[in-house]
Structure formats: structure tokens, C-alpha cells
Request: fold
Amino acid sequence: MQATKPTVGIFGLTGCAGDQLVILNCEDELLSLVDVVDIRDFLMAASGGDEFSTLDIAFVEGAVMTRRDEEKLQRIRRRAKALVAIGTCALQGGVPAMADGLDWPSAVRDVYGPEGDGFDALPARALHECVEVDFSLPGCPIEKHEFLGAVADLLNGNPPQLPTYAVCTECKMRECDCLLVDQGRFCHGPLTRAGCRARCPSYAVPCVGCRGPVPDPNLGSAMDVYTSKGWSPEEVVQRLRTFGPLPTPVPAGEAA
Ligand code: SF4
Ligand code: SF4
Ligand code: SF4
Reply:
């Protein structure tokens, strides 16, 4: 008799579907994946999924930006034994969280006109602000190798393994020239979690921090480096908020 496979659901809230696309793009591995898991609910791949059964693992992309998102996330949470936030929108709000601090009703009205008053539109929230999140995979979008590694880890009862060091480490391992120190270009590498193999600096494009911060970012020291290159503290903070809020407050006196 065939053993029961762990059940998986893959979902999207408000986002660009890029993380789900990365999963669909695992073309060489998809057959092996469906050999070991039973993908029950993945609307982007197939309609008519099972919307009600218990899931061993739910992967959820996107930020919570509507009441519908909130309700959907709560339904997923009730079904899932393990909930994994995938992508920076789900982890920390992502690019939409750049609007944090705006007068939200006015902003919606500015964009959509008076009809905006009735829209189901909320400021971006990360999943963990609404429900308990068990694990996270960063990136905008996520990395294919990290997704496949996370599935393997979870099936073996282990938490997904992520690098705890910064993009700069991978950049040095690839022997790239430093765009920040050598060329004075704003690069988020020192504060950003590695795992993308320093993709952008390896093409001479500065990192914009799409994978979110390392677990213990040294904001004070990074601020010293950035300001020594000529950026004002306000500009540094603005740039560092590209993919969501700062991980911790910048020490007093350094952002003011
Ligand atoms: S994290 Fe990036 S890829 Fe994922 S939903 Fe948000 S914008 Fe799209
Ligand atoms: S280019 Fe960016 S990621 Fe690479 S070492 Fe310099 S600051 Fe770090
Ligand atoms: S280098 Fe930076 S911006 Fe580019 S993929 Fe990596 S984390 Fe994202």
C-alpha cells in the first residue's frame, strides 16, 4: 500500500505572484516534488483544488493588504500544521510597506479618487503581524534552491536552513569589486541576508536589499559607512526602507 504523502498548499495574498512563479519554474524538479508531496491547493497551477482539508505545509506569498487577505490567511492558518511565509512581502511587507506612515485613507483617495473610499485596501502588513508564522523564506522573489531545500528540510522534520551572513560575504566569495567602497554606489549588501549568491553585485548592480536584513544587522556601523560616502542619514533610512520597515530603530543621533 502506498504511504500517504504530506499535503501542501501554495497560496498568494496581495503580491505579484513572483514567488509562486519561482515554484512553477522548478521544471526539472516538479515531478520529483509531486512524487513526495501531495499538492492539494495551488490555484496558480490548477483550479479546482481542495480548499478545505488539513495541510501539513502551507506556503504563503504576498502581504496582507485587504480584509479578504486577512480572512484568507486566517483560513489557511487554521488548515496548516506549518505555515511558511515566502517572499519579502510576506516576511516584512515588501515594497508596498514603503507607504508606511502615510495617511492611508488620503493616499488611497489620491490614487483612486473618491471611489477609493469604498476600496478594501489596508496598509501592507507582514503575515506574522496577523497570524503565527512557523518559517520564512526571504527574497523578491524567493530563490528556487532555497524553496526546494526548505521542502526537503520540512519533510525531514527540520527547520529550513538559511544563511545568517550578509550578501557582502557571497560577493567577496565571487571576487566582485565592491560597488560601495570602490565606486561609492549605494549597496545594501552589508545589511542584507545572503542566499542569492550576490546576484546583483555580480553584474555590477548594487544590491537593493530584496532579501531583507541579516538577523543581527549592524545599522550603526552601516550608517557610518554610508554617511562617510556622502548620503545623509535621512536618505540612508529612506533607501533602507525600500523593502519594508527597518529591522530595528537606527540608534538615536544617527538617523536624526
Ligand atoms: S516578495 Fe517580490 S516576488 Fe514576492 S510577491 Fe512580493 S513583490 Fe512579488
Ligand atoms: S558590492 Fe555591495 S555586496 Fe558587494 S561587497 Fe560591496 S557592499 Fe557588499
Ligand atoms: S543582490 Fe540584493 S537585491 Fe540582488 S537578489 Fe541579492 S539580495 Fe536581492
Q: What stands out?
A: The CA atoms of residues 104 and 123 lie 7 Å apart. Residues 67-79 form the longest helix (13 residues).
